[in-house]
UniProtKB/TrEMBL annotation:
The keyword Glycosyltransferase does not apply. One of its GO terms (cellular component) is proteasome regulatory particle, lid subcomplex. Belongs to the proteasome subunit S14 family. Keywords: Proteasome. This is PCI domain-containing protein. Residues 101-259 form the PCI domain. Gene3D superfamilies: 1.25.40.990. It comes from Aquilegia coerulea (Rocky mountain columbine).
Length: 259
């Protein structure tokens, strides 16, 4: 069985090499550099990823088949496909780097590959996760009008995708003040890349709950405070107070909202 798998892998490698031989030199160079980017991203070598991505973006400017020119070339499909792949990896890199500005720039460059030329390419398995990720970003940034504008651009089938539905349900819960549902959703993210934005949303929700609790009570027991904030342990509560609410004080088993 292992020998069979090795032979199959050799065949796949040989097929990839034959495909590269058909490419023009510029496309081959981009493909090789993109493989290095993917490997660096797998290793979480973010600095090297950033350097490789910068080189790739410069090289992509030589492909006139890409937006906004859309000129035909003998390698149009291959050029569009690898450019889409590169920008998808750029979006993932921005999440790993926790860089929201880079996310917005890279998503803006990627979006035409979904909206303007999607029919010319095979579907990307990353499309719905990334579209849902962008919706989650807009929700975190409280850009609700843009959130709904993006929803209106999606197809009926896209709206049924678990990644998109996750963002829609979060927005509904947030708007209804059902903060417990928002906090619970952190444990059921539909894609691994969602953790960063979900953590930011959880922080926003906890800040909102904390503000309401401070207005409603002078103090609460530690257990009641943990239940209110949906915090699992005394240690996590103490960390939250130290980092987010330094004006609070834990004393004699109680949480006082004013020192």
């Amino acid at each position: 069985m292992k020998e069979k798998k090795r032979n199959q892998e050799k065949i796949r490698v040989a097929e990839r090499e034959r495909e590269r031989e058909k490419m023009d030199p510029k496309l081959t160079e981009v493909s090789q550099l993109f493989e290095r980017l993917k490997a660096s991203l797998m290793r979480n070598d973010l600095d090297n990823c950033s350097n490789l991505l910068s080189q790739l973006k410069i090289m992509l400017t030589g492909f006139r088949s890409l937006p906004p020119l859309f000129e035909d070339s003998p390698n149009t499909v291959q050029e569009l496909t690898i450019a889409r792949n590169i920008y998808e990896h750029a979006v993932v890199l921005s999440v790993k780097a926790e860089d929201q500005d880079a996310f917005e720039r890279d998503f803006f460059q990627l979006k035409p590959y979904y909206t303007d030329i999607g029919a010319r390419l095979p579907p990307s398995p990353q499309e719905h996760p990334i579209l849902g990720l962008n919706l989650l970003r807009l929700l975190v940034q409280n850009r609700i009008a843009e959130f709904h504008t993006e929803l209106e651009l999606l197809s009926t089938s896209a709206l049924e995708n678990p990644c998109i539905k996750h963002a829609i349900e979060l927005e509904q819960s947030f708007m209804e003040g059902a903060y417990n549902r928002v906090l619970s959703a952190r444990q059921t993210v539909p894609h691994e890349t969602y953790a960063y934005f979900m953590d930011l949303l959880v922080k926003t929700v906890r800040d909102e709950i904390a503000g309401c609790g401070k207005k409603a009570y002078d103090y609460l027991s530690i257990n009641d405070a943990k239940q209110m904030l949906m915090i699992s342990s005394d240690q996590v509560l103490s960390k939250f107070i130290t980092e987010e609410r330094p004006e609070w004080e834990i004393k004699n088993g109680l949480v006082f909202f004013q020192k």
